[in-house]
Amino acid sequence: MGELTSLTLEKLKTLIEINGRINSNYSDVKALLVYILESAMRLVECESSSLLLVNKEDGTLRFVVALGPKGAEAKNIIVEKNSIAGWVVENNKHVIVNNVGLDPRFSDTVQNKTGYVTKTMIAIPMRVKGQCIGVIELINKSGSRGFCNSDLEILNLLASQAGIAYLNADSYRSAKDNFSVLQNNIVSGSDYHPFVAKSPVVLDLLHVIDEVAKANTTILITGESGVGKELFAEQIHLRSNRVGKPFLRVNCAALSSALLESELFGHVKGAFTDAVSDRKGRFEAAEGGTLFLDEIGELPLELQSKLLRVLQNHTFERVGSNETISVDVRIIAATNRNLEKMVSEGSFRSDLYYRLNVMPLNVPPLRERKEDVLPLAKFFLAEFANETKKNFESFSAAAEKALLEYYWPGNIRELENSIERACVLGKPPLIQTEDLRINSNASSVQKNKTQDSFEEIADEIANPADGDRTLKTALNKFKTAYIKKILDSTSWNQTEAGKILGIQRTYVSRLLNELKIR
To answer: Where is the Sigma-54 factor interaction domain (predicted)?
Structure first.
């Protein structure tokens, strides 16, 4: 007890209460840290407090919590290394400063921006496994008093517990994320894929899916190859009232026209050479449930009219039969092709397109939802570490940076293949950058390509064959190229393109006519 001789019984009782609260509440890291600082202010009787965490990349500190008269204003300010807090991190030691203005380590950045004058301060390292991950600052002790060693004793104990609590809370949050994935897998069953998502754009898309899943509307999912369109189709089914019924998948690009017709609609005995018995097609097998038609853009023209009839009347005949069969099946189609362009070229029926495109959903590429990269990478790491029987714990900091900076032209499929390859080639406990076998300079290369593209467009516009170099003509040429690019990214869905361009769909149609975009 010698360490606590200077502590009053009341303060010791408060510390025990804080300790109990810290180690029993892991669900909300932010709320936990606020509670720690509020308790610290109560213990030492001061005006303000803050918790700053260290940015590992450049050593600067950012406010995670800031309490007091100017706390809200201080939260967005970056604290440089050449400050009292920076000194605490660098030396992993506490400091008491009772005349802050005269201390050579003092940086007045926060004071100048908020107008709040710091007179006295005690700054304590928050450690995890001995390493300083942040700094707890208590500012301006009440009654114009200075901080003392008794304050330091109790706050050192509190900071130690706070570091452990932060680590526990962070581990809890990570475990909870993993459990959510596991829980989704269990609920979905072995026939469905786990769904891993953290980015706002995908979470917003799931909210849309929650609404459209309730209806029996036909849905067309568009997006680049490898973005996970099938997983979104599964989520629509799992969130619908058809969840207890079959969810069947058909890849329209995998079979010839004759085989695909039999696969979808079934056949009767003798319909063709190998038809030795009657066979139900996928439409009949999916009765009451959902049929997912992947690569719908590859559906042969001769089958498009038959599919249109099912969508309109819910009826069809098996191959070789005149008997009409009625079905109750929801259709979800997916493609990475530009169906509107295919319609204009005559390779896809316009009436079928409009029937399929009742409710379009566009899945963004992985490069536009960077928040999903690391959760997906860690999910694949756990899967392939188990398969390769290697005890990988995580990725190195450099590997994580490379994963986030890479352009991922092949989207989630490429990410999955990269992690599998890294597990085969790498050595535990951490996946290193070289194990990933990806071009970490891809982002800068892509930026250079983009810049080159702009310069090429500018050169082309500035030196036209017809000699027309007016600004109006140049702007129209750029508009044409840009609008075409946006339409390509949305599979020529004018409504989605309008949202990206920030204009109404009717104005998109008007621009298409004015600029003669086809």
So the answer is: 195-424
Strands of 165-269 (E only): list them.
219-222, 247-251
- Tell me the per-residue pLDDT of 423-433, one tens digit each, with 9 for 90 and over: 999 999 999 99
Among 143, 98, 92, 89, residue whose Cα is nearest residue 119: 98
Give the tokens for residue 468.
């027309």
| DSSP structure string for 178-200 | HHHHHHHHHHH-TTS-------H
347 phi-psi bin (left φ>0, alpha ψ -120 to 50, beta other): alpha
**Predicted confidence (pLDDT) per residue in 256-285, tens digit:** 888 899 999 999 988 887 778 888 999 999
Rounded distance between C-alpha atoms, residue 361 and residue 100, angstroms: 57
Question: 366-444 maps to which CATH number?
Answer: 1.10.8.60
Longest dimension (CA), the chain: 99
What is the topology classification, in CATH, of domain 200-362? Rossmann fold (3.40.50)
Per-domain boundaries in the chain = 2-177, 200-362, 366-444, 461-515
**Can you say how many angstroms the Cα of residue 153 is from the centroid of all Cα atoms in its chain?**
43
- Domain 2-177 falls under CATH 3.30.450.40: yes
The Cα–Cα gap between 383 and 389 comes to 10
